[in-house]
Amino acid sequence: MSTVKARALVLEEPGSKPVLAEIDVLDPGPGEVRIKIAASGVCGTDGHAIEGTHPLARWPVVLGHEGAGVVESVGEGVTDIGVGDHVVCALAVPCGTCRQCRRGLAEHCNSPARRQAMSGVMADGGSRLRHGGEPAYPFFGVGTLAEYTTVRRQQAIPIDPALPLDEFCLAGCGVITGYGAVLNVAQVRPGDTVVVVGAGGVGANVIQAARAAGASTIVAVDGIPEKLDLARTFGATHTIEASRDVAAELRAIEPDGADAVFEVVGKPELLSMCLSLTRVGGACVMVGIPPMGAQVTFDAFTLNANRRLLGCRGGAVVPTRDIDRLVSLYRGGALNLAGLIGRRLGLDDVFEALDQLGRSAFARSVVVF
Q: Does the predicted model carry a pTM greater than 0.85?
């Protein structure tokens, strides 16, 4: 093995414009895997990092966190996957030893080891990426908007090489977050009424997950008409333009309100409305990531009717379990990945994809290497 050079999208400091630069990707250490990235989605959270609304602990950062590729080399002690294996890059790495993991609640792991991995630091406290000779850190521990990256073994989830990597890269974040919000957090049941506020990349997956879970009524809310058209293709039975009286239009569809309402925009001011749309015993799930320090105000009496306001950290997933679940849904025709991709482009055009975040008529741009 030897250090490889790779082109990557690097954010050098808060508030700066990301740059395309050559980085060095060091050999994988013990328990690590170096991956040749085949494709990476461009997610709204990358945009939040650039804007500074998603705080980062270390700089510079190699952006991208929705990736899939082929194992190029493995470090000492890695014996269960090998060179040439196809993998999806996963964000969450349950430690397996903390109290939550021991109780069978790995999706709630918040151990120092997990936080360290998410900040792009390996078990030995270092990084395997170099920018200008100095350490650089992979976003969410993966840094997939690069030709190569090195991750912990637990973050490389093997998949069948027959599956398309340019589609399954999206399973690393947007798809698994949407599905996890429905299946793991809200636990939508057959016959439920679901409302999805924000029908973009993650929202489209909330919609198709709700359909797969058997929801009978799925209402999409968005301010971009083309996104509402997209929502219908993924299973929305009704759509509401966001500038209209959403509560009144929902009452015309379902007078008692919804069993589950998903806020997928990340705007705290929408949470109060979303909570008010739930029926007695219903759940409001905050899927979008709000800015740090943002405050939410709502009538506390709303919760008196057994309503629940729930957080949703990445879909509360365990990657080894939930990516396998996505593969099964895909093979069964219940997961549409191709329809999420509005544009495939090269790394040189990634700035066009970043500029379209939140404004495009489609769910995702995918950078193909």
A: yes
